[in-house]
Amino acid sequence: xxxxxxxxxxxxxxxxxxxxxxxxxxxxxxxxxxxxxxxxxxxxxxxxxxxxxxxxxxxxxxxxxxxxxxxxxxxxxxxxxxxxxxxxxxxxxxxxxxxxxxxxxxxxxxxxxxxxxxxxxxxxxxxxxxxxxxxxxxxxxxxxxxxxxxxxxxxxxxxxxxxxxxxxxxxxxxxxxxxxxxxxxxxxxxxxxxxxxxxxxxxxxxxxxxxxxxxxxxxxxxxxxxxxxxxxxxxxxxxxxxxxxxxxxxxxxxxxxxxxxxxxxxxxxxxxxxxxxxxxxxxxxxxxxxxxxxxxxxxxxxxxxxxxxxxxxxxxxxxxxxxxxxxxxxxxxxxxxxxxxxxxxxxxxxxxxxxxxxxxxxxxxxxxxxxxxxxxxxxxxxxxxxxxxxxxxxxxxxxxxxxxxxxxxxxxxxxxxxxxxxxxxxxxxxxxxxxxxxxxxxxxxxxxxxxxxxxxxxxxxxxxxxxxxxxxxxxxxxxxxxxxxxxxxxxxxxxxxxxxxxxxxxxxxxxxxxxxxxxxxxxxxxxxxxxxxxxxxxxxxxxxxxxxxxxxxxxxxxxxxxxxxxxxxxxxxxxxxxxxxxxxxxxxxxxxxxxxxxxxxxxxxxxxxxxxxxxxxxxxxxxxxxxxxxxxxxx
Length: 635
Known about the structure:
Blueprint: H1 5-14, H2 26-30, H3 42-56, E1 62-68, H4 75-87, E2 92-97, H5 106-117, H6 128-141, H7 147-161, H8 164-176, H9 183-191, H10 198-205, H11 212-218, H12 228-244, E3 248-253, H13 268-282, E4 286-292, H14 294-299, H15 307-314, E5 324-325, H16 331-348, H17 362-368, H18 375-384, E6 404-407, E7 410-413, H19 416-433, H20 437-450, E8 455-456, E9 459-465, H21 470-473, E10 479-483, E11 488-494, H22 502-509, H23 512-515, E12 519-524, H24 533-545, E13 549-552, H25 555-569, H26 571-574, H27 578-588, H28 595-601
Parallel strand pairs: 1-4, 1-5, 2-3, 3-4, 11-12, 12-13
Antiparallel strand pairs: 6-7, 8-9, 9-10, 10-11
Helix pairs in contact: 3-4, 5-12, 6-7, 6-8, 6-9, 8-9, 9-10, 13-15, 16-17, 19-25, 20-25, 22-24
């Protein structure tokens, strides 16, 4: 096609490939990632690839690797590179954990991260769970079908044999794998090949509780509440050992440099380090990867009791038992990085630039390397200077952030590109985000804090408070909204997951006296089963006698709040202030016009919402969905 300078300049004026893309989010780890230059810090990623190769060939059983780097130097970029490279190969599975909402229940959180990670697509373009399930059946039955073929055949098998099909397959697997002690985990993994039951199977494998009718229909016992942590650790070891028959599990822990602490005083990195030590000692095989700041390694990991034993396992392949340090960018790295980003950008828009680095100048880009910048600072600098025939105006390490950026005649708020990028990430991962109670709660907390001083639905919001007394609350209710000169005191609780807690959560929401409430508000997208007797009793009290409310959580309402929350959460990396973010929330009316926010603050209807989702599905498969292209399953 014919391309003119004005065509490319118009494109540059209206599209900025660097804006809002300076922080790698979990969505980029799993999905489409940023452009990558494999030569940058190749020593770190190659160490992981070499470890996978050694384990898969039986030269090592378990390998521990720790990567250290200062903020913005590219730890998550390396992890993304590792994930996407491994996705093209058949030798490994990738597991990723970056959220540590409750360090006192780290084993349960880790189990949930394992189950969630194995939902991601592997090398065969199906979920990693389904790859393992197919491998189990192929070995047990001496077949050689692909996961997709089994997915196609399952509806016919279930239509013909119902649950007996899964029982038969489970028994067949256990005959060839008698060392597997938990038959229910095998059964749940095999259920993942059923399109109708994959969500329930992975939910159960996460250690969470199914509706009793659904659990009974699938032949899966719900977890016991007495020792959830012990049960979680046992289950995660069994799952990882089962995956190890066919793939090397690569288990990555990211975002460890947070100040949160467990009740025993250990910080997040220390809690994870102890968990990794236990995994290293107990797993059949695997590669354990951690990423952290150098000071986290020095101040926290090396300060642990029995630190030498921990360090030996976290850096097992390094002769000096030291982490692998990432390097700052040099001039060649910067040119290669910017060139790759621009190549992807121009190819996507079918444009041919005057030269590969346009609108930047190679000589001036190389000068940036003299300051040893980070990946993040270079990308941020490019975002701020991406204009036609851009003059080089400053060093990336000294860039500043204004409230607005002017492009042509349009004034764009500084926060806008970061919000747009996070909203795109939310869109592709909203199904999993809808299960993350803590993340939804945090998003609502940010939104309500941005509204302090505003009047919404007749409530003038004065403050957002923690719930006291904390001992009586025991972490159930999330926060209180105070308004109208303390005459309105709304206790809010987001409950999306475990059904064992819904009764206890509602019990707090109706206890107005203890928690000094005028209204309790449940936020939830799913029905509450009629079989949950205590929960239904509390719900009737909340809605019919206490003047409380149940607000339906809808994905379209929470998406923008999640997006701006992620901007706020990453504000330090984005070099944004709370003032800028709250200014953007107000300018775009993200909170004040949000239907979920307004419904929480509006007068209660006293009715259950009608737009709820149902967790339970019948076990039988309609004949209309049974696949005719099938093989016989002889029971």
